[in-house]
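Why should sequence recovery work at all? Because a backbone constrains its sequence more than one might expect. Tight turns favour small or flexible residues, buried strands favour hydrophobic ones, and helices have their own preferences. The token representation captures these environments compactly. In the example below, the structure is given first.
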């Protein structure tokens, strides 16, 4: 199964529900959807079954841009948190130089 994308708009809030395998090939379409969205966008990851490193980096950048990630599986959440930690460490090292 590939990735299924469903959108729901409630006022100014866009919710994007993702189902299936989320691969790097899906990211351009998601970036386009998010590029047209206003603040308060939500990515519902409850039905995402598989991700790769590019997807996790994308999801971490979404959180940095105030996109809310909901119903994220524990393994994906942990991986995103590790990406955030690596970003903070890289930023700290740049400041030390």
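From this structural description, the recovered sequence reads:
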């Amino acid at each position: 199964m590939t990735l299924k994308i469903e959108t729901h708009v409630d006022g100014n809030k866009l919710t994007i529900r993702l189902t299936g395998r989320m691969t790097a090939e899906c990211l351009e379409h998601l970036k386009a959807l998010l590029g047209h969205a206003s603040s308060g966008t939500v990515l519902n990851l409850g039905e995402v079954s598989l991700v790769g490193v590019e997807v996790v980096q994308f999801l971490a950048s979404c959180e940095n841009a105030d996109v809310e990630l909901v119903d994220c599986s524990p393994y994906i959440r942990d991986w995103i948190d590790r990406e955030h930690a690596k970003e903070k460490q890289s930023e700290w090292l740049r400041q030390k130089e």
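A few observations help interpret the result. The helical segments are 27-35, 53-64, 74-96.
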